[in-house]
């Protein structure tokens, strides 16, 4: 059976429904745009960069399989009032407010690698501007555990999920977890309050003979090697339109770089030894923010027949808690920490998964 159909059969219930079809994904995208939380924007970016809304790129690598799915968990007190097909009803009537949370699952598989290296990435959005209730959190745990069992008990990859959703996962064993801070600010504040410094006229550019550029395909292997989080080369290649790289003029070597991820989250700031504490990250950061706002504005217009409503785009950036230099760089620009999040790889022991979950916060 097709893996996607198998997952549908295993996960779908009265409260858990798949979001299927371009029109449904567009409708959900507009709702997430209006919800306006950082997790909502992160999932929206994932939708906009996937083939769920946009046509697949002809340059898409045939050696890498990428499959996206969207699931909705309905409020138990409301779902019984829906007659007929729940997924169709919600999408057609824009009743996304009936949901407790949304989950975007992205499955990756590398056909060039003979080992079975399929992985599933999980992104969750609580349908609220506040933290999830205990009841909603319990439902989230049960959904994640069902997904894990379906994956023949392989690890799940959580992309920047808020820590309070991970801290009490029952029976969870974290194979890897990087604690981070999620920073955010309104794009309008950036555009109106901050004037971009000209890097080419700066003292540091003249002193070290540096120039502003972008990450190029030939830089990918070096960037992957140096970054704290080792993103796949294929993934980094897809991020190239929204990257900034400061180079040494004598040999074009990358000195400082920063990327905007496919979901428009800014991250992966790095400066090589010998050039740190020179404010190079500040210049790269300014440049990539403007690229990110421009790219997001173009993509979000796909959600609407006409010009999009005036929702103010939220810039968001994740950095490791231990990366004090990155935090000192971004905070003067007005970005403020809004949540503790983690990059995590997690597995479970089914013997420790209780029927009645006791939550501790």
TrEMBL record:
Gene3D superfamilies: 3.40.630.30. This is Uncharacterized protein.
């Amino acid at each position: 059976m097709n893996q996607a159909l198998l997952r549908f059969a295993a996960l779908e219930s009265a409260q858990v429904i798949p979001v299927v079809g371009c029109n449904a994904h567009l409708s959900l995208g507009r709702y997430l745009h209006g919800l306006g939380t950082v997790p909502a924007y992160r999932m929206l970016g994932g939708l906009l960069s996937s083939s769920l809304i946009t046509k697949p790129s002809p340059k898409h690598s045939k050696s890498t399989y990428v499959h996206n799915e969207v699931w909705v968990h309905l409020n138990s007190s409301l779902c019984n009032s829906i007659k007929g097909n729940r997924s169709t009803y919600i999408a057609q009537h824009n009743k996304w407010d009936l949901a407790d949370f949304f989950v975007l699952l992205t499955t990756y598989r590398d056909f060039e690698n003979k080992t079975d290296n399929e992985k599933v990435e999980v992104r969750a959005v609580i349908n609220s501007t506040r933290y999830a209730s205990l009841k909603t959190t319990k439902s989230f745990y049960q959904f994640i555990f069902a997904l894990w069992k379906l994956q023949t008990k392989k690890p799940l990859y959580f992309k920047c999920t808020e820590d309070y959703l991970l801290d009490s996962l029952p029976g969870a064993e974290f194979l890897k977890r990087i604690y981070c801070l999620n920073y955010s600010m309104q794009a309008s504040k950036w555009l109106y309050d901050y004037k971009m410094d000209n890097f080419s006229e700066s003292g540091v550019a003249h002193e070290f003979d540096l120039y502003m550029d972008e990450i190029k395909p030939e830089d990918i292997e070096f960037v992957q090697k140096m970054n704290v989080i080792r993103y796949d080369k294929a993934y980094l290649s897809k991020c190239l339109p929204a990257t900034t790289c400061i180079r040494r003029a004598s040999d074009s070597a990358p000195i400082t770089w920063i990327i905007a991820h496919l979901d428009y989250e800014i991250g992966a700031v790095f400066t090589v030894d010998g050039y740190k504490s020179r404010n190079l990250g500040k210049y790269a950061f300014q440049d990539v923010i403007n690229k990110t706002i421009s790219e997001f504005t173009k993509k979000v217009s796909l959600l609407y027949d006409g010009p999009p409503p005036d929702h103010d785009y939220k810039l968001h950036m994740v950095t490791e808690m231990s990366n004090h230099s990155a935090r000192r760089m971004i905070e003067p620009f007005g970005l403020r920490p809004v949540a503790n999040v983690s990059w995590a790889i997690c597995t479970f022991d089914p013997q420790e998964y209780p029927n009645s979950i006791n939550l501790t916060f």
